[in-house]
Amino acid sequence: MGHVEALTKYVTHFVDQLVFSGVEHVVISPGSRSTPLAMTFAEHSGVNHWVHLDERSAAFFALGIAKQEQKPVALVCTSGTAAANYYPAIVEAFYSRVPLVVLTADRPHELREVGAPQAINQIQMYGSYVKWYQDLALPEENNFHYARQQAARAMEEAISGQGPVHLNIPFREPLIPDFQLEEAWRGSVQPIPRAQRGSLAMPDDQVKSLFEQLAQGENGLLVVGPQTDSRLAEAVTHLASRLGVPVFADPLSQLRTGSHDKRNIIENYDALLKSQTIKGQIVPDYIVRFGAMPVSKAYLKWIQEYKEQIDHYVVDDQQEFREPAGIGATFIWSEPVQLCESLSDFMPDGNVETSWLSTWQQMNVLAKNEMLFEPGYSLNEGHAVAYLADTMPDDSNFFVGNSMPIRDVDSFFMASPKNVQLMANRGANGIDGVISTAIGTAATGKHTTLLLGDISFYHDLNGLWMAKNKKIPLTIVVINNDGGGIFSYLPQSKHPDHFEELFGTPLGLDLGPVIGMYGGTHRKVTTWESYKRALVESYESPGLNVVEVVTNRDDHVAFHRERWANVEKAVLEWSGSL
Description:
- With 578 residues, this protein is α/β, with parallel strands linked by helices.
- It is built from 22 helices and 18 strands.
- It folds into three domains: 3-170, Thiamin diphosphate (ThDP)-binding fold, Pyr/PP domains (Rossmann fold), CATH 3.40.50; 204-353, Rossmann fold, CATH 3.40.50.1220; 379-551, Rossmann fold, CATH 3.40.50.
- This is 2-succinyl-5-enolpyruvyl-6-hydroxy-3-cyclohexene-1-carboxylate synthase.
């Protein structure tokens, strides 16, 4: 067997096994050393291949597809610094539990560490940020069975570990496969079957013990942080109704939108917990948290301040320790939906009404009224979110950038019957790659609205190329306050001598020309009337639409503090200081 035949069968069997094991999308960045992989993926009829020129944006684009589909997506790049550009997205995938199969082509072993061009040390280059890693053997005679085994395991590791895996694959020249070879593909070889999976379920006696522990507390609280399981909304709200307890719903919990019962949903807890007086009077007996830690910093400080008075439980289907508050929680490693249903079985049918729940519900209404009170002045980030929530179409995605946008969504995006999935890159909370990730979520056909700041928009301009090239419809709302608004809330703002240069970082850029370069429609707004009209037009127009909302960074902090103060005043007047 010659080199070309060995190369061809090695790569075709490897790719075919990935597709058989569940890879439906691959994102390829052009390069020479990755030629065998790129051509084979393009030749295989069972996988959709996307070509993205910029590796950093390509990796985030793949991340977006994987978020949307909740299935592993493959990434292919050539050797050298191309692979290094994947790093930020791999870190995000690791912490946000998104499965990626990262395939980096490499020089053969004899060309490593000898000064060969485009050859860097790619061995375990992503360190502990991948769930599994292998440096594969070179294609040789009859080792295509080995190639299938590695592909099958990579998929199982990505799925079971809910994160990225990395296969480094060396190739010798020549690099062009011959797809006309007999049995170049599967031939008589049977693919490796997929693993059979069971759920991580608690035994009945442990569920009963947990129920008895919760029953000892009169004033309970369920908290749902960022998570992606669409089934959890129905299960956790049903459990809450049986318990008669409120549910704190993070904007990324998938609980604020949809058709499920929202009577127990509290979405304004962040504003309520900003008040030292209020938060000291409404301490629960226990908290059961599903998903990651909520976005709200006020919630984090609250549970830290009263950690000795609250019994904490963290439910997770991965055996990890996601508890950044340091509160000594009890970890329950179980499938969340199944646990909610099992706990509900111990309780009588019907909704339980309690004074504890009623208090939270009334405070939530009062807070909502104050947060959404119609502005009588210039554009602000909060009402930009509220009007966006009213306008965005049903059955769509809402992708939110980090820093201030996700916090404004937490404060101003209220419960809605619309079927809108909220997403963000909250694994590492970076502002890079946000455009590309959002475009990835839209690539498979679901319309996506992206909200982000001007600095984050600037960080990933290259990502707009994919929207132009593939004519992917996307509405982007850019909050342009000419800099990093979140720093105005931090201690750095007290040092004006260096604040603007080091933290405020005003861009001073005209966004219109770059949006036009990528074939987008740019609408710059400075009034509420023009903003609302621009949103409607963006959803009626094909392709890329960018709505630029010009706000004043100097007014941002004062606006938010005024709203929080009004919430506190309204609640205390209603309650008589609780």
